[in-house]
Inverse folding.
């Protein structure tokens, strides 16, 4: 399947170091050769860069590594196709508008015959189950929450309900952001790490490269990085529980929806 990488922070920051390792998984250190993409926010705008070539050899990916962008929210994806041809329209992340904001989304998984009826308000361009689920997710957020963005607790609760509904059709690991915050849902595999003062020295898993984050960051910088598999050693990556939805804002975990079976054990 595919792999995901996301970042949420309290100030615009570069994902340069993490991308250096992540992009190598797109055909060099791993098998995800069927395209890649990255979405990042600049103010209210969302920029999406995608390529149907392997990220390890893509000129666009090389440009992103050499000239890294800074943003408070970033979503990146490397693809191993399970549904849909290897073509640009099927590369993640996907982006759409909702409540006057741009939303970006990427999915890792395989939804088998998903019965997710669309009413035409959002229509897939490609042929993946991933984009279908994204269109349904935004359609239902609009239908269930109304014409205006709801308060954060109500929005989180609705996203959690939709996660359970869509995940009933298969594996639904995903990242979703509107530029203000980042949602991360785990069906099978997802990890996150917090980076804040005192910053550590870490080394990439996929490349012989290390960095001392204390030399690159101010004491008040905060960042959360989310990835399918840990990208570094020297820092503590925390595994999501299957079925868990997390909401990151300003570089920290803002809210979490715990798996239903875990809650049942406490009753």
């Amino acid at each position: 399947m595919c792999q995901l990488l996301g970042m949420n922070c309290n100030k615009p920051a570069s994902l340069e170091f993490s991308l250096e390792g992540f992009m190598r998984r797109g055909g060099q250190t791993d098998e995800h050769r069927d395209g890649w993409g990255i979405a990042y926010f600049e103010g209210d705008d969302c920029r999406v860069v995608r390529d149907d070539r392997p990220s390890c050899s893509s000129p666009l990916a090389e440009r992103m590594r050499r000239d890294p962008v800074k943003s408070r929210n970033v979503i990146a994806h490397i693809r191993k196709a399970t549904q849909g041809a290897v073509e640009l329209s099927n590369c993640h992340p996907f982006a759409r508008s909702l409540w006057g904001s741009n939303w970006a989304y990427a999915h890792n998984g395989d939804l088998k015959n998903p019965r997710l009826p669309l009413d035409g308000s959002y229509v897939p361009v490609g042929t993946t189950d991933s984009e279908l689920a994204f269109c349904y997710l935004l359609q239902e957020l609009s239908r269930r929450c109304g014409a205006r963005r709801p308060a954060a607790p109500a929005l989180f609760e609705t996203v959690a309900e939709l996660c359970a509904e869509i995940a009933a059709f298969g594996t639904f690991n995903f990242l979703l952001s509107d530029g203000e915050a980042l949602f991360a849902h785990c069906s099978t595999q997802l990890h996150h790490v917090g980076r804040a003062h005192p910053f550590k020295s870490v080394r990439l898993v996929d490349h012989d490269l290390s960095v001392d984050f204390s030399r690159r960051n101010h004491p008040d910088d905060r960042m959360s990085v989310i990835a399918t598999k840990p990208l570094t050693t020297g820092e503590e990556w925390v595994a999501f529980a299957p079925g868990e939805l997390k909401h990151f804002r300003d570089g920290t975990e803002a809210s979490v929806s715990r798996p239903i079976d875990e809650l049942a054990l406490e009753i």
About this structure: The helical segments are 16-22, 59-66, 129-145, 152-167, 260-264. The chain has one domain: 3-264.
